[in-house]
Specification:
eight-stranded mixed beta sheet, 5 helices, about 25% helix, about 25% strand
Length: about 280
Protein backbone atom coordinates (compact mmCIF):
# COMPACT_ATOMS: atom_id res chain seq x y z
CA UNK A 1 0.00 0.00 0.00
CA UNK A 2 2.84 2.35 0.92
CA UNK A 3 4.62 1.58 -2.37
CA UNK A 4 1.40 2.35 -4.29
CA UNK A 5 1.01 5.70 -2.56
CA UNK A 6 4.67 6.56 -3.22
CA UNK A 7 4.22 5.80 -6.94
CA UNK A 8 1.05 7.93 -7.12
CA UNK A 9 2.78 10.83 -5.39
CA UNK A 10 5.74 10.70 -7.80
CA UNK A 11 3.41 10.60 -10.77
CA UNK A 12 1.47 13.67 -9.57
CA UNK A 13 4.76 15.53 -8.96
CA UNK A 14 5.94 14.87 -12.53
CA UNK A 15 2.61 16.09 -13.98
CA UNK A 16 2.81 19.32 -11.95
CA UNK A 17 6.45 19.88 -13.01
CA UNK A 18 5.58 19.53 -16.70
CA UNK A 19 2.77 22.04 -16.32
CA UNK A 20 4.99 24.54 -14.54
CA UNK A 21 7.81 24.13 -17.10
CA UNK A 22 6.04 23.69 -20.45
CA UNK A 23 9.22 24.29 -22.46
CA UNK A 24 10.56 20.90 -21.42
CA UNK A 25 7.58 19.14 -22.92
CA UNK A 26 8.56 20.28 -26.43
CA UNK A 27 10.65 18.15 -28.82
CA UNK A 28 14.35 19.02 -28.59
CA UNK A 29 16.69 18.31 -31.55
CA UNK A 30 19.44 15.83 -30.68
CA UNK A 31 23.02 17.06 -31.10
CA UNK A 32 25.16 14.50 -32.91
CA UNK A 33 28.89 14.60 -32.14
CA UNK A 34 30.78 13.67 -35.29
CA UNK A 35 34.11 12.91 -33.62
CA UNK A 36 35.96 9.61 -33.16
CA UNK A 37 35.58 7.97 -29.78
CA UNK A 38 37.33 5.20 -27.96
CA UNK A 39 34.23 3.07 -27.55
CA UNK A 40 35.01 -0.63 -27.94
CA UNK A 41 31.90 -1.40 -29.96
CA UNK A 42 31.70 -4.69 -31.80
CA UNK A 43 29.97 -3.11 -34.77
CA UNK A 44 31.60 -3.79 -38.13
CA UNK A 45 32.91 -0.54 -39.60
CA UNK A 46 34.18 -1.98 -42.87
CA UNK A 47 31.95 0.17 -45.03
CA UNK A 48 34.00 2.28 -47.46
CA UNK A 49 33.81 5.76 -45.94
CA UNK A 50 36.62 6.94 -48.22
CA UNK A 51 35.59 5.40 -51.50
CA UNK A 52 36.74 8.52 -53.33
CA UNK A 53 40.46 8.31 -52.57
CA UNK A 54 42.33 11.05 -54.38
CA UNK A 55 45.95 10.79 -55.50
CA UNK A 56 48.07 13.77 -54.47
CA UNK A 57 49.96 13.66 -57.78
CA UNK A 58 49.13 12.06 -61.14
CA UNK A 59 50.89 8.76 -61.90
CA UNK A 60 53.74 8.77 -64.38
CA UNK A 61 53.10 7.40 -67.89
CA UNK A 62 53.74 3.74 -68.56
CA UNK A 63 57.40 2.83 -68.99
CA UNK A 64 59.57 -0.24 -68.88
CA UNK A 65 59.34 -3.60 -70.69
CA UNK A 66 56.50 -3.51 -73.20
CA UNK A 67 55.11 -6.89 -72.17
CA UNK A 68 54.23 -5.40 -68.77
CA UNK A 69 51.56 -3.29 -70.46
CA UNK A 70 49.31 -6.31 -69.94
CA UNK A 71 49.22 -5.29 -66.27
CA UNK A 72 48.29 -1.66 -66.99
CA UNK A 73 44.68 -0.60 -66.23
CA UNK A 74 44.25 -3.64 -63.98
CA UNK A 75 44.11 -3.99 -60.19
CA UNK A 76 44.86 -6.88 -57.83
CA UNK A 77 43.61 -7.29 -54.26
CA UNK A 78 44.92 -9.38 -51.39
CA UNK A 79 44.11 -9.45 -47.66
CA UNK A 80 47.13 -10.06 -45.45
CA UNK A 81 46.50 -10.25 -41.70
CA UNK A 82 44.39 -7.20 -40.83
CA UNK A 83 44.97 -5.23 -44.04
CA UNK A 84 43.56 -5.40 -47.55
CA UNK A 85 45.94 -4.22 -50.27
CA UNK A 86 45.08 -3.20 -53.81
CA UNK A 87 47.86 -2.92 -56.36
CA UNK A 88 47.11 -1.14 -59.63
CA UNK A 89 50.34 -1.35 -61.68
CA UNK A 90 51.44 1.98 -63.14
CA UNK A 91 48.82 3.76 -61.01
CA UNK A 92 48.90 3.29 -57.21
CA UNK A 93 48.80 1.01 -54.17
CA UNK A 94 46.16 1.35 -51.46
CA UNK A 95 45.79 -0.12 -47.98
CA UNK A 96 42.58 -0.67 -46.02
CA UNK A 97 42.43 -1.78 -42.40
CA UNK A 98 39.79 -4.52 -42.04
CA UNK A 99 37.95 -5.88 -39.03
CA UNK A 100 35.88 -4.24 -36.31
CA UNK A 101 38.09 -1.19 -35.94
CA UNK A 102 36.70 2.30 -35.32
CA UNK A 103 38.15 5.01 -37.53
CA UNK A 104 40.21 2.45 -39.50
CA UNK A 105 42.86 3.54 -42.01
CA UNK A 106 42.10 3.49 -45.73
CA UNK A 107 44.51 5.38 -47.92
CA UNK A 108 47.08 5.46 -50.69
CA UNK A 109 50.53 4.05 -49.91
CA UNK A 110 52.09 5.40 -53.09
CA UNK A 111 51.53 6.67 -56.62
CA UNK A 112 53.50 5.24 -59.55
CA UNK A 113 56.58 7.40 -60.27
CA UNK A 114 59.58 5.51 -61.62
CA UNK A 115 61.66 2.34 -61.81
CA UNK A 116 64.52 1.39 -59.54
CA UNK A 117 67.30 -0.01 -61.71
CA UNK A 118 70.03 -2.34 -60.47
CA UNK A 119 72.68 -4.02 -62.66
CA UNK A 120 70.81 -3.46 -65.95
CA UNK A 121 67.56 -4.84 -64.47
CA UNK A 122 64.27 -3.21 -63.54
CA UNK A 123 64.39 -4.17 -59.85
CA UNK A 124 61.27 -2.47 -58.45
CA UNK A 125 58.41 -0.11 -59.22
CA UNK A 126 58.79 2.92 -56.98
CA UNK A 127 55.57 4.56 -55.83
CA UNK A 128 55.72 7.67 -53.66
CA UNK A 129 53.58 10.65 -52.56
CA UNK A 130 51.12 8.50 -50.63
CA UNK A 131 49.07 9.56 -47.60
CA UNK A 132 50.93 11.83 -45.21
CA UNK A 133 52.67 10.02 -42.34
CA UNK A 134 54.01 12.55 -39.89
CA UNK A 135 56.39 14.85 -41.74
CA UNK A 136 56.70 12.63 -44.82
CA UNK A 137 54.33 10.96 -47.28
CA UNK A 138 54.10 7.19 -47.47
CA UNK A 139 55.97 5.33 -50.23
CA UNK A 140 56.22 1.75 -51.45
CA UNK A 141 58.48 -0.33 -53.70
CA UNK A 142 56.84 -3.17 -55.64
CA UNK A 143 59.15 -6.00 -56.64
CA UNK A 144 57.98 -8.23 -59.49
CA UNK A 145 58.92 -11.90 -59.20
CA UNK A 146 58.21 -14.96 -61.32
CA UNK A 147 54.98 -16.81 -60.53
CA UNK A 148 52.21 -18.68 -62.31
CA UNK A 149 49.57 -16.12 -61.25
CA UNK A 150 49.30 -12.35 -60.96
CA UNK A 151 49.15 -12.11 -57.18
CA UNK A 152 50.26 -10.02 -54.22
CA UNK A 153 52.46 -12.33 -52.15
CA UNK A 154 53.59 -10.19 -49.24
CA UNK A 155 53.82 -6.65 -47.88
CA UNK A 156 56.33 -5.49 -45.27
CA UNK A 157 57.27 -2.18 -43.68
CA UNK A 158 61.09 -2.11 -43.48
CA UNK A 159 61.02 1.55 -42.44
CA UNK A 160 58.49 3.89 -40.86
CA UNK A 161 55.75 4.36 -43.49
CA UNK A 162 58.08 2.89 -46.14
CA UNK A 163 56.62 -0.31 -47.53
CA UNK A 164 57.75 -3.15 -49.80
CA UNK A 165 55.39 -5.37 -51.78
CA UNK A 166 56.21 -8.64 -53.53
CA UNK A 167 54.05 -9.27 -56.59
CA UNK A 168 54.26 -12.45 -58.63
CA UNK A 169 53.49 -12.60 -62.35
CA UNK A 170 54.30 -14.99 -65.20
CA UNK A 171 55.40 -11.96 -67.24
CA UNK A 172 58.76 -11.88 -65.44
CA UNK A 173 59.64 -15.58 -65.71
CA UNK A 174 61.89 -15.26 -68.79
CA UNK A 175 65.49 -14.70 -67.72
CA UNK A 176 65.76 -11.54 -69.83
CA UNK A 177 62.24 -10.20 -69.20
CA UNK A 178 63.37 -7.41 -66.86
CA UNK A 179 66.54 -6.32 -68.66
CA UNK A 180 66.79 -2.58 -69.28
CA UNK A 181 68.90 -2.58 -72.45
CA UNK A 182 66.44 -4.36 -74.79
CA UNK A 183 63.58 -2.15 -73.57
CA UNK A 184 65.38 0.96 -74.84
CA UNK A 185 64.94 2.43 -78.29
CA UNK A 186 67.70 1.77 -80.85
CA UNK A 187 68.89 5.34 -80.44
CA UNK A 188 69.27 5.03 -76.65
CA UNK A 189 70.92 1.62 -77.03
CA UNK A 190 73.47 3.30 -79.27
CA UNK A 191 74.01 5.98 -76.61
CA UNK A 192 74.58 3.27 -74.01
CA UNK A 193 77.07 1.43 -76.26
CA UNK A 194 78.95 4.66 -76.88
CA UNK A 195 79.01 5.52 -73.18
CA UNK A 196 80.30 2.08 -72.22
CA UNK A 197 82.98 2.31 -74.89
CA UNK A 198 84.17 5.67 -73.55
CA UNK A 199 84.27 4.30 -70.01
CA UNK A 200 86.16 1.18 -71.09
CA UNK A 201 88.72 3.36 -72.92
CA UNK A 202 89.02 5.49 -69.75
CA UNK A 203 87.78 8.59 -71.52
CA UNK A 204 85.27 9.16 -68.72
CA UNK A 205 85.27 8.28 -65.03
CA UNK A 206 82.85 5.97 -63.24
CA UNK A 207 81.00 9.03 -61.99
CA UNK A 208 80.71 10.30 -65.55
CA UNK A 209 79.46 6.89 -66.69
CA UNK A 210 76.78 6.83 -63.97
CA UNK A 211 75.71 10.36 -64.83
CA UNK A 212 75.42 9.40 -68.50
CA UNK A 213 73.37 6.31 -67.61
CA UNK A 214 71.05 8.44 -65.53
CA UNK A 215 70.53 10.75 -68.50
CA UNK A 216 69.66 7.75 -70.72
CA UNK A 217 67.16 6.40 -68.19
CA UNK A 218 65.56 9.83 -67.89
CA UNK A 219 65.19 10.12 -71.67
CA UNK A 220 63.55 6.70 -71.70
CA UNK A 221 61.12 7.79 -68.98
CA UNK A 222 62.32 5.13 -66.53
CA UNK A 223 63.32 7.59 -63.79
CA UNK A 224 62.19 11.11 -62.94
CA UNK A 225 64.14 14.34 -62.89
CA UNK A 226 64.14 14.46 -59.09
CA UNK A 227 65.69 10.98 -58.77
CA UNK A 228 68.99 11.09 -56.95
CA UNK A 229 72.12 9.63 -58.47
CA UNK A 230 72.82 7.73 -55.25
CA UNK A 231 69.43 5.97 -55.20
CA UNK A 232 69.49 5.06 -58.88
CA UNK A 233 73.08 4.33 -59.76
CA UNK A 234 75.18 3.54 -56.74
CA UNK A 235 75.00 -0.07 -57.90
CA UNK A 236 75.85 0.71 -61.53
CA UNK A 237 79.55 -0.13 -61.50
CA UNK A 238 80.56 -1.51 -64.90
CA UNK A 239 83.73 -3.55 -65.20
CA UNK A 240 86.39 -2.12 -67.44
CA UNK A 241 87.94 -4.39 -70.03
CA UNK A 242 91.33 -3.55 -68.50
CA UNK A 243 90.40 -4.57 -64.98
CA UNK A 244 90.66 -8.02 -63.48
CA UNK A 245 88.39 -9.30 -60.72
CA UNK A 246 90.84 -7.97 -58.14
CA UNK A 247 90.88 -4.51 -59.77
CA UNK A 248 94.46 -4.76 -61.16
CA UNK A 249 95.49 -3.64 -64.68
CA UNK A 250 96.58 -6.06 -67.40
CA UNK A 251 100.19 -7.03 -67.21
CA UNK A 252 100.71 -7.06 -71.01
CA UNK A 253 99.13 -6.11 -74.32
CA UNK A 254 98.41 -9.78 -75.13
CA UNK A 255 96.33 -10.28 -72.01
CA UNK A 256 94.47 -7.06 -72.80
CA UNK A 257 93.67 -8.22 -76.35
CA UNK A 258 92.56 -11.62 -75.07
CA UNK A 259 90.20 -10.04 -72.56
CA UNK A 260 88.82 -7.68 -75.20
CA UNK A 261 88.08 -10.55 -77.60
CA UNK A 262 86.38 -12.46 -74.79
CA UNK A 263 84.18 -9.49 -73.99
CA UNK A 264 83.40 -8.98 -77.67
CA UNK A 265 82.22 -12.60 -78.01
CA UNK A 266 80.13 -12.26 -74.86
CA UNK A 267 78.55 -9.06 -76.17
CA UNK A 268 77.64 -10.69 -79.47
CA UNK A 269 76.10 -13.67 -77.68
CA UNK A 270 74.07 -11.37 -75.45
CA UNK A 271 72.78 -9.35 -78.41
CA UNK A 272 71.80 -12.57 -80.16
CA UNK A 273 69.83 -13.69 -77.11
CA UNK A 274 68.11 -10.33 -76.90
CA UNK A 275 66.72 -10.61 -80.42
CA UNK A 276 63.63 -12.29 -78.95
CA UNK A 277 62.60 -8.88 -77.61
CA UNK A 278 63.08 -6.99 -80.87
Amino acid sequence: MQICCLFCSSYVFIIILLQVLPGYSENVEMRIVDEPTSYSWQTNFNSDTRAGLTMRVPPSPFSGPQHLQRLDKRCFKKTLKKYEYEFCPFSNVTQREVGSVWNSFHGILGVWQEWKIVDNHFSAMHMSMGEQCGAHPREIDVKLVCGKDNEILNVTEPGHCRYEMIFSTPLTCHQHSMLVYPALTKHLQHDWDQLLSEYTDEQITEKGYNKGMQAIFKKAGYIQEFASEESQHKEEKPHKAGDSETGKRFSSLDTCIEAYESLDRELKQTKAQLQVFV
